[in-house]
Write a structure and sequence with these properties.
Layout (H helix, E strand, L loop, with lengths): L3 E7 L4 H11 L5 E8 L5 H8 L3 E4 L8 H14 L4 E4 L8 H6 L4 E5 L11 H8 L3 E8 L9 E8 L6 H24 L3 E4 L2 E4 L2
Parallel strand pairs: 1-2, 1-4, 2-3, 4-5
Antiparallel strand pairs: 5-6, 6-7, 8-9
The site of 5-O-phosphono-beta-D-ribofuranosylamine has 13 residues, from helix 1 and strand 5.
Length: about 200
């Protein structure tokens, strides 16, 4: 199977990026991470990319007159690297129309809660504060909303009485590192069929 090129957008430590890079390197996903782009030049995720010999690009949003111009540059970099699928991996911005239009149906995100519950920032802490007995994580396609796109995979974890927001986040993160590479693999093997809000997995 022909390898696909992945582009990753990151803002922070990049542990999900690492799980995808590792799965590609191990031959578990028929893809390569072609470029990693961050809106924050100090993001450790950029360092992880460099350590793996992957092009790492920092783009400072305040260098651009508006979001459209900022995203147009990101689109250009992604296209220059022949990117098929964009993986948001801890990217702390809402994707705008410029990026969405250029990569319609080809942007994925991982969220640390069972969507549609607890969208937005700090999904793990929101769930822990609410007092749910189970939480988890969700890989979804990205649309114009905040964590609203069609759901690809979810994993459930229990919440224990002695959990803190941090211990719960750690338990969820383990599952993120399992299901994000898996969702990317399914996409790269052309096994995801999107029908409206439903994503079916072709077996
Ligand atoms: C993860 O919890 C992910 O679910 C959320 O942002 C965090 C990124 O962590 N979208 P990392 O940078 O991948 O380590």
């Amino acid at each position: 199977m022909e390898k696909k090129n992945l582009g990753a957008l990151v803002s922070g430590r990049g542990s999900n990026l690492q799980s995808i890079m590792d799965a590609c390197a191990a031959g578990k996903i028929p893809a390569r991470v072609a470029v990693v782009i961050s809106d924050y030049s100090e993001a450790y995720a950029l360092e992880r990319a460099r350590q793996s010999g992957i092009t790492a690009v920092a783009v400072n949003p305040s260098d651009y007159p508006d979001k459209a111009a900022y995203e147009q540059y990101i689109v250009q970099v992604l296209q220059e690297h022949g990117v098929h699928l964009v993986c948001l991996a801890g990217y702390m911005r809402l994707v705008g129309a410029t990026l969405l239009d250029a990569f319609t149906g080809r942007i994925m995100n991982i969220h640390p809660a069972l969507l549609p519950a607890f969208p937005g920032l700090h999904g793990q802490e929101q769930a822990w504060r609410y007092g749910v007995k189970y939480s988890g994580c969700t890989v979804h396609f990205v649309d114009g909303g905040m964590d609203t796109g069609p759901i690809i995979l979810q994993a459930v974890v229990p919440v224990y009485d002695d959990d803190t927001a941090d211990t719960l986040a750690d338990r969820i993160l383990e599952q993120e590192h399992r299901i994000y590479p898996e969702a990317v693999r399914l996409y790269c093997e052309d096994k995801l069929i999107v029908e409206g809000r439903k994503v079916r997995i072709w077996t």
